[in-house]
Amino acid sequence: MIDKFVHSMADAMTGIADGSTILLGGFGDVGIPTPLLDGLIAQGARDLTIVVVAGGRDGSAIERLLSLGRVRKMICSFVRPASLAGRLFQRGELEVDVVPQGTMAECMRAAGAGITGFYTPTGADTLLAEGRETREIGGKLCLLEYPLPGDVALIEAWNADRWGNLTYRDSARNFNPVMAMAAKLTIAMTRNVVALGELSPETIVTPGIFVNRVLHVPL
Amino acid sequence: MAIAPLDRNGMAAWCARDIPEGWLVNLGIGIPTLVADFVPAEREVLFHAENGVIGVGPAPAPDAVNPFLINASTTHVTLRTGGSYVHHADSFAIARGGHLDLCVLGAFEVAENGDIANWARSADEPVKQIGGAMDLAIGAQRLWVVMEHATKDGQSRIRQRCSYPLTAKGVVTRVYTNLAVLDVTPSGFVVRDMIPGMTLEALQERTEAKLHAETKA
Questions:
Q1: DSSP readout, B156-196?
Q2: What was the ipTM of the complex prediction?
Q3: Which of B125, B138, B166 to probe by mutation at the A interface, max A CB count within 10 Å?
């Protein structure tokens, strides 16, 4: 019987190695798997690269992880200078790679989809393209981008069954489905547990084949 | 006649007036977000939010906030009947793939060749804040900018060439400022509308780029 449920945070976090690249779902305060991030903090992995839309608000779990010095590099689309990430970066204590948000999503999609590189017009005419490979395609200058795979993805779901089939709540979907596809080890937390067969096949957003572990974290 | 520059809501309303029924529209953060408030509910315009919402509705009543539903400004919103959700890669496929009839962004500067600068005031700025602007700017069928005509210290934001790092080249098609509506054309900025009391000469005095009068067909 396939059963991807784990029954403790420690089991959910088993095997996350130092130096891992961690994909973190969420946008704003919505869809961020904060309990899993707290679990990662307790688990102790360090020298991490985290991939997340923005640098983390004051008091957020991302900020807690940064404040403990556990993150070497952050790949994101947006950092506020006054945030902890912004201050760590300016002090040389954190590497930050700022990527256009759509490119970031597509790089992870490419990683999950086996696309080894792609050209996009996004950013091609900007200083982000300096020193990088560009090419004119169909009259548009385009920039070569590479896939962005994760060692681990931390996902927030709304419903999950024991095969790891997931649905999301409203705009909490955001990065979670592409990150689930792009990581070697996808760990989802779910607010609700449903029996296998209860989710209509037409409404499953992330099929369980992309999910390795599920932890039930009730609201 | 004394001139009264528009406030943020005035600029948003000016822009909203020109959005026809049926368009799919992405609104950037800041003044553009206000535009939705000035599109009457009976005019069916679909608003797209980069975090994967198609059919963004107005703000919820204080006692009816859905904590799982926000827009790109991370403000709580509602979903219109008929709305839908997509994940982030599909949301930006909508933007990049030319599926947006219109994107409305704020900016620091717009140039007469359609260049837009809206993410950094200097190439040396240590901390970068790009977000989704570059993807939205290159992908939408039309890119309109809503911004003040000048900076707080009086520098024109309507320019021959942008002085700040570019978000994208040659993409802006129209600008709504607190003084005028300008179209970006192959011959430069064409003045489509001005606030009451404003003249082309007075507007030109406040504008670094050359302005052209609209030629009546």
A1: BSEESS-SSPPSBSS-EEEEE-SSEEEEEETTEEEEEEE-T
A2: 0.96
A3: B138
Where along chain B do its domains lie? 8-213
Choose among B96, B127, B168: nearest Cβ to A90: B127
Res B126: pLDDT: 74
**B chain contacts of residue A31, beta-carbon cutoff 8 Å:** 68
What are B158-190's pLDDT values in tens digits? 999 999 999 999 999 999 999 999 999 999 999
**C-alpha closest to that of A54 among A31, A70, A35, A36:** A31
Chain B: closest CA distance from residue A110 (Å): 10
Flag whether the pTM goes above 0.90.
Answer: yes
Which candidate from A100, A172, A178 shows the least CB-CB separation from B132?
A: A100
CATH 3.90.1150.10 fits B8-213, yes or no: no
Q: Touching check for A118 and chain B: CB below 8 Å?
A: no
Fold of A5-115+147-216: Glutaconate Coenzyme A-transferase (3.40.1080)
